[in-house]
Amino acid sequence: MATPTRNLALELVRVTEAAALAAGRFMGRGDKAAADHAAVEAMRLMLTSVDMDGVVVIGEGEKDEAPMLYRGERVGTGAPPAVDLAVDPIDGTRPLATGNLNAISTVALAPRGTMFDPGPIVYMDKIAVGPAARGKVDLSAPVEANLRAIARAKGDRVEDLTVIILDRPRHEGLIAEVRRLKARIRLIPDGDVAAALMTAWPESGIDVLLGIGGSPEGVLAACALRAMGGEIQGRLVPRNEEERRRGLELGHDFDRVLTTEDLVASDDVCFAATGITDGELLRGVKYSGGGATTDSLVVRGLSGTVRRIQAVHGLEKLNRLSAFPY
Questions:
Q1: Which of 61, 169, 180, 249 is the most exposed place for a label (fewest CB within 10 A)?
Q2: Any residues with CB less than 8 A from the CB of 298 and at least 6 apart, and which?
Q3: Is the pTM of this model over 0.90?
Q4: What is the pLDDT along the chain (326 residues), one digit of tens a residue?
Q5: For strand 123-129 and strand 231-237, is the pairing parallel, antiparallel, or unpaired?
């Protein structure tokens, strides 16, 4: 019998809890930059305590003009294992700033060299589904073909499906097509990591994610969905000719459909997410007196274990232990 390996996912949840506790104070205050700064600093501080030799492959700072956990930054104690990290201290800065739903804090890791790096390419066209529809969808196929395939796989009608889409002008045609097919639509302002995860979480009622969102978020979602038995496919989308040129120089093929396995090439993946504001996936941070509660999702790829962790935090004690004020 093999000896169980260390479950780093259980250490990562302390990282996302810290970021969520710090960012949750800014719910509805309209200050995305301040919320980002608090989440990044809390996340960085906690990452230094994890026994790993980590390199940030996916960081959100450059795109969001936020304080960085930058690409190439070394995190952890430097002890083995050597891992790649994808971080998003706040997936959904706009919903957090306006007090809306589905802002979460996320971290994923995988063995060194197994995580896809989109480089300067900010956007990715995506389709994501849960375990029931895994292997049944194709990003290159028409929307109608995919929705009918998902409905067949789940024993439903297309009219029973709920499609989650970022509310953007670029999706007007996509939204019109889904409406023509009479599927239900859930439009969201931001937060497509949480949206992708909802497809693998039956309680959310979401069947498929469609449309163009962030490429870093696509890699983060792939880490979770690979472990949860779901699927995501993506195609990089350059914003302009300069970004296309830079992508081609790095060897990116803008016609290629990237599979879940392309985005993270290992089953030895760990993922953690903590809710900042309430949502279909996770409850947000709740503060009362000198304490706070958090709701987290923790996934380990090797075992396929998905944990839901509800934690009660004594903020007075945390503040005595931490260099970061909660």
A1: 169
A2: 9, 10, 12, 13, 271, 272, 306, 307, 308, 309
A3: yes
A4: 444 467 899 999 999 999 999 999 999 999 999 999 999 999 999 999 999 999 999 986 554 444 568 888 999 999 999 999 999 999 999 999 999 999 999 999 999 999 999 999 999 999 999 999 999 999 999 999 999 999 999 999 999 999 999 999 999 999 999 999 999 999 999 999 999 999 999 889 999 999 999 999 999 999 999 999 999 999 999 999 999 999 999 999 999 999 999 999 999 999 999 999 999 999 999 998 889 999 999 999 999 999 999 999 987 777 777 766 77
A5: antiparallel
